[in-house]
Design goal:
The chain is an alpha+beta fold. The chain is built from 17 helices and 13 strands. Bound molecules: 3-methoxybenzoic acid. 3-methoxybenzoic acid (OVM) binds next to helix 12.
Length: 399
């Protein structure tokens, strides 16, 4: 029997606005179609079940990142930007840059930031409690990372808002060259130049993540040319992701008010509440790999050099893995979710993301009686990120 002729196929477009508005029926169809599915529109393979997503994430030797983690195959097309020295690489090269980032973003490093981050979250929530209502996307989920992350990097003041359009471009660039990508990169040049400038040693303070990355030149871990590129990775991956994660958590806690009450009774659950929001909404929805050899997935044969799309969001709601996956439940055991990926490329900033989520949700748990959605939430469409454009919110004070 020729498995290739019977492998499941779908004409779904997972980079269309209709899909982004409601991806869940398509996620379910792709999971149910089989362990691996051909996406006929793009001539690629896709995995949407938890077990297969987990397998692909954990086998970097077969499922390479070095040919790009987007739709574009760097072996066939010129990369849109200089490839990342960490995201778009394989071991052993990958491990050298990764080791530096592991140290810079280590548990010990997080400890030095916690008090500052918690004070910033308290101040922001206090200010928002004085407002009749506000848009929680610009004023909380964007404002908080922009208030703490550039300082942690040691960036110069000014123009820090550029981090948002830059991230939007890069995360769109992992998808096809559709309108979302073209619109995002229309005025890319000045923002790209700005990011490159911010990554230089002389732009960065002496005490931030940026300086710590550049210090790896003196120890021989990075070359002088590599250090700014590794700083660029932080500037790329560190803002839009946490913006989507915080937005996800706020949207979850507003839509599941009983869960917010459980959090209020025990603010120690803030970290768990954030983690469950990362599972439930999966801010980074997709990444690709490229096969380095012929391989079988669930009896289906894939050739060498095939792009494989991993639906992290579908895996995080796979009923084969999760009980009541459509429920936002802050008491759930979320261990194993793939919202931060898994394996050698698992999110290197995940402790920083969790710290940001934890301090914001702790501030809300302590100071706020109820979150009320006071207008129509709107989604922000991006080829990779699932997030919100607008979330009109009112915070009710504790009396
Ligand atoms: C990087 C990079 C960019 C986007 C995402 C990411 C999720 C890393 O430039 O290294 O990780």
């Amino acid at each position: 029997m020729d498995f290739a002729t019977v492998s499941p196929s779908s004409d779904a477009d997972p980079f269309s606005r209709g899909f982004f508005a409601d991806p869940f029926p398509t996620h379910a169809a792709l999971r149910d179609a089989g362990p691996v599915v051909r996406l006929s529109r793009y001539g690629i393979w896709a995995v949407a079940r938890y077990d297969e997503v987990y397998r692909v994430l954990n086998d970097w030797e077969t499922f390479s990142s070095a040919r790009g983690v987007g739709l574009s195959d760097f072996a066939k097309e010129k990369p849109w930007r200089l490839p990342s020295l960490v995201l778009e690489t394989d071991p052993p090269f990958h491990d050298r840059t990764r080791k530096v980032l592991n140290r810079v973003l280590s548990p010990a490093a997080m400890k030095t930031l916690r008090e500052k981050f918690a004070a910033a979250a308290d101040a922001l929530v206090d200010a928002l409690l004085e407002r009749e209502s506000f848009d929680a996307v610009p004023e909380l989920s964007e404002a908080f990372p922009l208030a703490v992350f550039p300082d942690a990097i040691g960036m110069p003041p000014g123009d820090r808002h550029n981090l948002l359009p830059y991230g939007n471009m890069v995360f769109n660039s992992f998808g096809p060259r559709n309108d979302l990508f073209n619109d995002a990169v229309r005025d890319a040049a000045p923002v790209m130049a700005w990011v490159q400038l911010q990554s230089q040693r002389d732009q960065l303070s002496d005490d931030g993540f940026g300086a710590q990355i550049h210090a790896a030149v003196a120890t021989g871990e990075l070359t002088a040319g590599e250090a700014p590129m590794v700083v660029r990775s932080l500037l790329t991956a560190g803002v839009d992701t946490t913006v989507s994660g915080l937005g996800a958590a706020l949207f979850c806690l507003a839509r599941f008010p009983e869960q917010f009450q459980i959090l209020r009774e025990n603010p120690g659950l803030a970290r768990a509440a954030f983690e469950e929001a990362v599972r439930f909404e999966t801010p980074v929805q997709t990444f690709f790999r490229t096969t380095t050899r012929p391989v079988e997935i669930g009896g289906v044969h894939l050739d060498e050099g095939e792009k494989v799309l991993m639906f992290l969001g579908a895996a995080n709601r796979d009923p084969r893995k999760w009980d009541l996956p459509e429920e936002y439940d802050i008491a759930r055991k979320t261990v194993g979710h793939v919202g931060f990926g898994f394996g050698v490329h698992a999110c290197v900033g995940q402790l920083l993301a969790r710290l940001e989520g934890e301090v914001v949700l702790q501030a809300l748990a302590r100071k706020v009686a109820r979150l009320e959605i006071v207008g129509a939430p709107r989604r922000r469409f991006n080829n990779t990120l699932r997030g919100l454009e607008s979330l009109p919110l009112k915070l009710h004070k504790v009396h």
